[in-house]
Amino acid sequence: MFSSKTNGQSQAQVSRLSEAQVRSVPSIISIDLKVHGNLSSNGEIQIDGSVEGDINCKALIVGAKGSVSGEVTAQTVRVHGAIKGKVKANSVFLASTAQMSGDIEHESLAIEPGAFMEGHCKRIAVEAQKVTEVKSPALSNGVNAEKLSQAAAS
User: Lowest CB count within 10 Å: 90, 92, 112, 140, which one?
Assistant: First the structure.
């Protein structure tokens, strides 16, 4: 009579579901584990062992003893161990113990002194810059170039 239900679920069940969706525990590849294959996650992955394969996740942390051989795609990547392959991420951090061999595509890149980096670094343009490039250029009085060329043709 007084209990709150949402589509057959109690309020406590709904609360636990939303809590689980907001905070998820990172997936951990421990130091004694070796993985051959691709990894994909909507959350965070921490590599302390070794992975031979591509990784696609929201956030990747490669521990000091961890190693990755393959392509990495993530929003954020923190490297304390070794990566051999291409990294594509919004934010990349290479700690002083990092051993990076491969190209990095990034929006933000930080490299501590002592980190090893062999490869090319390419900055990915921020979405806001791409949007302004697509729009037609406006003149100072607010008339765009297309209207100006139409008026000139008349």
Answer: 140
Question: Per DSSP, what are the bridge partners of residue 105?
Answer: 88, 122
pLDDT band at 130 (very low <50, low <70, confident <90, very high): very low
**What is the rounded distance in angstroms from the CA atom of residue 148 to the CA atom of residue 145?**
5
Give per-residue pLDDT as tens, 59-89.
999 999 999 999 999 999 999 999 999 999 9
Q: Is there a contact between 97 and 80 (Cβ–Cβ < 8 Å)?
A: yes
Give Cα 128 to chain centroid, integer Å.
Answer: 17
The helix (run of H) or strand (run of E) holding residue 109 is strand 104-111
Contact partners, residue 77, CB within 8 Å, separation at least 6: 59, 60, 62, 87, 89, 91, 92, 93
Q: Which residue is listed with tokens 């090893």?
A: 116
As a 3-state breakdown, the chain gives helix, strand, coil percent values, each rounded to 5, of 20, 45, 40
